[in-house]
Amino acid sequence: MNDTIAYYNQNAENFVSGTLHADMSENQSRFLRHVKPGGRILDAGCGSGRDTIAFLKAGFQADAFDASEEICRLAAENTGIPVACKRFEELSGEAEYDGIWACASLLHVKAENLPDVMMRLKRLLKPEGILYASFKEGSTERVKEGRFFHDMTAESLRALFEQTGLTVLESFFSRDVREGRNNENWVNIIGKKTG
Do residues 55 and 35 lie in contact, with contact meaning Cβ atoms separated by under 8 Å? Predict the structure, then answer.
């Protein structure tokens, strides 16, 4: 994980410029229609801050964090709100959020740490709170260009949510919306805290 954070610190400007204007409106809409209007959302692993901006514009309250110091600095500039610098494994708190958005961020968490991280996220949700997550489609753990990735299938992601005690509302596939990346498949899931 430290190597992954170092990658983002060293490549923050390029990463942010390449993702800030990617059109995630379809996935955002699918998530937001389940979240209480005007509710509080946590952008977990916020990257450029693109999605935080969309949530704020849609009338929601939003908090954001990322593990990379440089990404946090740029995201704070882009969003106009403070962005906390922390890792998923450091999350704590209970029943604070109506929705948590983890877009292409949990994929940097090792499989052995995911169950604990998922429980941390679940605890942060209010009753009936909504969690969105997306992973690159696959079934391997790998390192690419210095970054660690944990890929998931639709089946393994659904099982992860169910093991966490989240009721799956939607599971769907999407193509990468970044320029030149539309051959990459993503698996997306939306779940509700019901227990």
Answer: no
SS3 (DSSP) at 135: strand
- pTM score, whole prediction: 0.95
- Of the CA atoms within 13 Å of residue 143, those in its CB half-sphere come to 7
Q: What is the pLDDT of residues 131-167, one digit of tens each?
A: 999 999 999 999 998 999 999 999 999 999 999 999 9
Cα 52–Cα 158–Cα 44 angle in degrees, nearest 5: 20
Element (H, E) at 19: helix 12-19
Residues 6+ apart with CB under 8 A from 165: 122, 193, 194, 195
CB-based contact 99:52 (threshold 8 Å): no
**Residues, the chain:** 195
Tokens of 163: 């093991």
| Domains of the chain: residue spans and CATH | 2-193 (3.40.50.150)
What pLDDT, in 10s, does the model give residues 49-91?
999 999 999 999 999 999 999 999 999 999 999 999 999 999 9
Q: Which two tokens mark 73?
A: 């600095």
C-beta separation of 186 from 177 below 8 A: no
- Banded model confidence at residue 182, pLDDT cuts 50, 70, 90: low
